[in-house]
Structures are given as C-alpha cells and as structure tokens.
Amino acid sequence: MMSDKSASAYWAANIRLITICLVIWAVVSFGFGILLRPLLSGIAIGGTDLGFWFAQQGSILTFIVLIFFYAARMNAIDRDFGVNE
Prior knowledge:
The structure is a single chain. By secondary structure, the chain is mainly alpha-helical. The chain has a domain at about 30-85. Helix content is about 80%, strand content about 5%. It has helices at about 5-35, 35-40, 50-80; strands at about 45, 50. A hairpin with a 2-residue loop joins strand 1 (about 45) and strand 2. The radius of gyration is 18 Å and the shape is elongated. The relative contact order is 0.15. It holds the Pfam family DUF4212. This is DUF4212 domain-containing protein.
C-alpha cells in the first residue's frame, strides 16, 4: 500500500503526463490543422500543403505516437512508485 504522500505524488505525475499529452494533441490537431493552416499552406509535403496534411494525417499519426509515449511513460511511473504489474 502507498502512503498518502506517495499516492499524491503518483497521481500528480499521472496528471502531469496526461496534461502534456493533451496539450501536444490539441496543438497538433486544432492548432496546426485549423488555426495555423493558412500559415502552413505554403509548405508542400506529399503533394499537398502542410496544413492540410496535419488536418488529415498528421494529427492521427501524432495521436498514435502519443498513445505509445503515454504507455511507456506510465509504465516507468508505475515502476518508480512500485505499483507496476
């Protein structure tokens, strides 16, 4: 069993990781795909502009990378706090 101090440190680390992942996801999907699309329209990638690419594929690929990043970091946090499987 974890102490109260250890449990709150564990949840703080967990919430910090979730916040980082959500901010990255929001910046890539909403920021690059929608808000910054006009600025990215002059950069060509794969036959289309970069803003369109982020809106259609980049945000999905970033989300998949974030899933694996979250799993790896959460496993490390679990090991650090002794709650791993």
